[in-house]
Protein: Sel1 repeat family protein
Amino acid sequence: MARFEIQDCDMATMGGEARAELFCDMGLMYATGRGCPVDLVAAHKWLNIAAIKGSDRAAELRADLSHMMTKMQLAEALRAARDWMTTH
Structure:
């Protein structure tokens, strides 16, 4: 299974806008199953982080994705994004 974690990426030290787009790409990767199984929770998590970092595109995609998720999945995704933001 392919995983793309930001701490393993050379781009992690780039500026805010570049990082936001990287996080958005990660969200799209999980949403579409590009190189990994589809994981809506992980997709929402990364799109949420990208939106927080300033990506308008990620905010729109996150909103669209949330309509396909259960309340439990949304809660899990929001928790995961919050946990990631507090540790990074």
